[in-house]
């Protein structure tokens, strides 16, 4: 299969400029072979926002996130009028958490979270302290010395979220971060993320894009919900949860799915 990419992510002052969106995607089409998966997708994420991307399984949510992370699959043909993501000193200022947790098996839970601090360039002691605090907040304080294979799927996922948060990038891309969690843990981890985000606890992170299947999770956590639908997928609705209120937002989302 041929691979070509026509996207040239802009190094953009606009990413930090007053009033300009942190992320701006216009007219994004992604194809695998002859098949368009995404067609003409527009997406903006403002500074300070959490945007949820919601859609049926296989519609292209992960593919969209990978394009934002600059990790478009080799097999893909990616064409867009515009893809702007934040940059910092010449590198993309983005942390991406894939659907699978991708923990390093040779590092304990704490060591895996510490890795986020290494990526960020925090001094050794500071990154260990920050990782320990994060693990405790995620209810994993007692498991910091456990190896990944000793953790449940949900615990592993929380370690991976903590690692991504500690990377301290301006834009956080989370692909189904709570997918393997049971309903209770899912709610409390989501609530934690919400509180930290609103109180500045995510450090340098300014905005979050969250991919999810879960309508209620999107309604609870997101400022705006972008619904992808159809085949190839397009944006079928952009729902401003704060403006509409949860009830009306839920009806609009369900109608667009
Ligand atoms: N590397 C690839 N080569 C060929 N097809 C691919 C590749 N990656 C993804 N696809 C196809 O693109 C479509 C979208 O996949 P993607 O993983 O983005 O969907 P998704 O909405 O995230 O799904 P899910 O919610 O189930 O994770 C699927 O039909 C998938 O088979």
The helix-and-strand class reads alpha/beta
Distance N to C terminus? 31 Å
Order of helices and strands: EEEEHEEEEEHHHEHEHEEHH
Helical run tally: 8
CATH topology of the largest domain: Rossmann fold
Main sheet characteristics = 6 strands, mixed
Q: Write down the domain tally.
A: 2
Explain how this protein is built.
With 257 residues, the protein is of the alpha/beta class. It folds into 2 domains: 143 residues, Rossmann fold; 91 residues, Rossmann fold, CATH 3.40.50.300. Helices cover 33% and strands 26% of the residues. Helix 2 packs parallel to helix 4. The N terminus is likely disordered. This is ATP-binding cassette domain-containing protein. Keywords: ATP-binding, Nucleotide-binding, Transport.
Give the topology, please.
Layout: E1 4-5, E2 23-32, E3 35-45, E4 50-55, H1 61-68, E5 76-79, E6 82-84, E7 87-88, E8 91-92, E9 94-97, H2 109-120, H3 124-137, H4 153-166, E10 171-175, H5 183-198, E11 207-212, H6 215-221, E12 224-229, E13 234-240, H7 241-244, H8 246-256
Parallel strand pairs: 1-5, 4-11, 4-12, 9-10, 10-11
Antiparallel strand pairs: 2-3, 2-5, 2-6, 7-8, 12-13
The structure holds adenosine-5'-triphosphate.
Adenosine-5'-triphosphate binds at residues 32, 37, 55, 57-63, 73, 75.
């Amino acid at each position: 299969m041929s691979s070509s990419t026509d996207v040239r992510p802009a190094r953009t002052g606009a990413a930090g400029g007053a009033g300009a969106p942190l992320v701006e995607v216009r007219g994004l089409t992604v194809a695998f072979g002859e098949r368009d998966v995404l067609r003409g997708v527009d997406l903006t994420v403002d500074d300070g926002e959490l945007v949820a991307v919601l859609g049926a399984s296989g519609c292209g949510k992960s593919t969209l996130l990978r394009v934002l992370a600059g990790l478009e699959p080799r097999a893909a043909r990616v064409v867009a009028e515009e893809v702007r993501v934040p940059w910092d000193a010449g590198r993309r200022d983005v942390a991406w958490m894939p659907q699978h947790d991708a923990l390093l098996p040779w590092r304990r839970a704490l060591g895996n979270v510490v890795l986020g601090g290494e990526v960020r360039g925090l001094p050794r002691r500071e990154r260990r302290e920050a990782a320990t605090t994060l693990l405790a907040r995620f209810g994993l304080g007692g498991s910091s010395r456990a190896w990944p294979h000793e953790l449940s799927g949900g615990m592993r996922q929380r370690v991976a979220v903590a690692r991504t948060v500690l990377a301290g990038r301006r834009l956080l891309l989370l692909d189904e971060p709570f997918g393997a969690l049971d309903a209770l843990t899912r709610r409390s981890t989501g609530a934690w993320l919400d509180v930290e985000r609103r109180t500045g606890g995510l450090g340098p992170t300014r905005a979050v894009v969250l991919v999810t299947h879960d309508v209620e999770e999107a309604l609870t956590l997101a400022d705006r919900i972008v619904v992808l639908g159809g085949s190839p997928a397009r944006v079928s609705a952009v729902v401003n949860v704060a403006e509409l209120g949860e009830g009306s937002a839920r009806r609009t989302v369900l109608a667009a799915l």
